[in-house]
Amino acid sequence: MKKTIALLTGGTTGEWVVSVKSAATIIQNIDADLYDVYKIMLNDKGWFYEPADSIKIEIDKNDFSLTLEGRKIKFDGVFIAIHGSPGEDGKLQGYFDMLNIPYTTCDALTSSITMNKGYTKAIVEGIDHLYTAKSVQIFKDGNYDINQIKQNLRLPYFVKPNSGGSSIGMSKVKHADDLENALEKAFQEDSQVLIEEFVSGREFSIGVFSAKGKITVLPTTEVIPTNEFFDFEAKYTPGSTQEITPGNMSDEEYSRVHQIVKDIYKKLNCRGIVRIDYFLEHETGKFYFIEINTIPGQTATSFIPQQVAAMGLTLKQFYADLMKETIG
């Protein structure tokens, strides 16, 4: 018996562009023998199903159903492919929990906490062999002292919106005088901003998922940006970043990283596929946690499809495993 699945895409932030591309990859690779998939677009104007003839049919939000040619369609589960709000910050997860409809991502609490980079760092602190960059979290209308921050943190800094994704609003600050401009840019995206000391290291991104009752770590991707850092342009412009999958780690680094990312996955109570970004510090090789992404991109240039391929899995098999584990 086929399951009826809603593939939810779009969103209300600048990341909707990425979300639409992710949904295109997902829908091409979902096993049509197992699932009937309806792509639902969510944006500021509403929630719609758009069949091929481009007539928009509104979703009934009372029970998340769709009426098509007089027939009411209810969904067995939801594949959430919305990056940023409201897909990644716990809002949709809470809504589906209330309707008792299963979905493919982390639960509402984990989703909302992990959207806040500062809170996430506080929770993962204490995991064996995991380090975090020294940082200050400030609030838009808060009482922060710029001069004190400059005294407490060593240049260069990374300034980033605390809840943003895709590196939007992020800056690398090399001169203390540039901090105010970087804060202004970040505050345009969020009311909370994180200022972190720069960690000099090799950058990696690694997928972790739970399926068939066990946590599986995908091959890591080493990220070598041609830009100053891995910003929005570097993430989504083919050729602007060298991405090596699997990334080059020694046997010791490999086993240490695998244990750390499994511990992060467990400590944050994750489910489904997540992506963890980290540095291995130059000189020491220490693992520095950057952030976790609970709805990682699935576009043609995204890390997870690259890593799934490097593991020898097809995306069709990967999505089937993921959906069996989370939706049933």
What percent of the residues sit in helical stretches (DSSP H or I)?
25-40%
CATH architecture of the largest domain: 2-Layer Sandwich
Please report the distance between the alpha carbons of the first and last residues: 12 Å
Average pLDDT confidence is 91
Question: What general form does the structure show?
Answer: globular
Instruction: Examine the coordinates and then state which fold CATH places here, giving the name of the CATH topology of the largest domain.
Output: D-amino Acid Aminotransferase, Chain A, domain 1
Q: Indicate how many domains the architecture comprises.
A: 3
Q: Looking at this structure, what is the CATH superfamily of the largest domain? A: ATP-grasp fold, B domain
Strand composition percent: 25-35%
The SSE string, one letter per element, is EHEEEEEEHHHEEHEEHEEEEHEHEEHH
How many strand elements?
Answer: 18
Largest sheet: 7 strands, mixed
User: Class of the largest domain in CATH?
Assistant: Alpha Beta
The radius of gyration is 20 Å
Helical segment count: 10
